[in-house]
Design a protein that fits this description.
Layout: E1 9-10, H1 14-26, E2 39-46, H2 55-70, E3 75-83, E4 87-90, H3 97-105, H4 116-129, E5 137-142, H5 149-162, E6 165-170, H6 175-187, E7 191-194, H7 200-228, H8 231-240
Parallel strand pairs: 1-4, 2-3, 2-5, 5-6, 6-7
Antiparallel strand pairs: 3-4
Length: 242
């Protein structure tokens, strides 16, 4: 990641790169490995200790959601996570959903405060660095908010005005966090939903809906919604069309 991006650091070491190349050669993907993408998504998650009690369940659901995004269109995806004492990292941009899925499921929780503002600023920085390849959507998974709410609202609004939609999936039922998350999604022209362990397939459907919107706009979203006939997709589309 370039020095101008002070929001997060890079996950990839020389060993990571070597592992990536080895795995990429052995895994078939739905999207072509080269050429222009139809969209770019940052997939971010809170990996602080408050999520540890349900982390195994959540990691499984997050992986299914990630696969759903990777199976629709030619999308470049970047994984971002934060945890511990100021640790906030980003993967390289990639179209190999399985590779990034494996990275995601290998992340372990560490005690620390939320760094949502840092994630939002990272997405802003990424779009500014490549104005011809803007970030179409930020998909964030978290359970709580421990930061200045007004600052988060300002950053979310900045993303919304730049064309980056914000989608948040909440793990848990903290009402204060839900209020903040919903406001961020409103400012970011996106949508809010709950991360429910009993509805992994429904969440995958919703991620597929987001990917369809990015690749083909509202017409593609409507076709996807009709093909799936899933009530859960309506939770997103109703918010997006307001």
């Amino acid at each position: 990641m370039a020095d101008s991006d002070k929001a997060v650091s890079s996950v990839s070491s020389e060993q990571d790169i070597a592992d990536f190349i080895r795995n990429a050669n052995s895994v078939a993907t739905h999207a072509p490995r080269s050429g222009p993408a139809q969209g770019r998504i940052v997939f971010a998650m809170d990996a602080t200790a408050s999520r540890q009690p349900h982390w195994d369940r959540a990691a499984h659901i997050q992986a299914e959601m990630f696969d759903a995004v990777g199976n629709i269109g030619t999308l470049d995806i970047q994984l971002v996570f934060f945890r511990g004492f100021g640790e906030c990292k980003a993967s390289k941009w990639c179209r190999n959903a399985k590779e990034l899925r494996d990275k995601m499921t290998s992340v372990q929780c560490r005690a620390g405060h939320t760094q949502i503002a840092r994630v939002l600023q990272h997405v802003i920085n990424q779009s500014r660095k490549t104005p011809d390849q803007p970030i179409d959507a930020l998909i964030y998974i978290g359970d709580c908010v421990e930061e200045d709410v007004d600052a988060l609202g300002h950053l979310a609004g900045t993303l919304g005005m730049s064309g980056t939609r914000i989608f948040i999936f909440q793990d848990g039922g903290d009402p204060a966090a839900e209020a903040v998350f919903r406001d961020m999604c409103r400012l970011g022209n996106g949508a809010f939903a709950r991360l429910d362990g009993s509805a992994a397939s429904a969440l995958a459907d919703m991620l597929g809906a987001i990917a369809s919107l990015i690749v083909g706009g509202f017409n593609a979203l409507s076709l996807y919604e009709k093909s799936k006939k899933s009530a859960s997709i309506g939770l997103l589309t109703d918010q997006l069309r307001r």
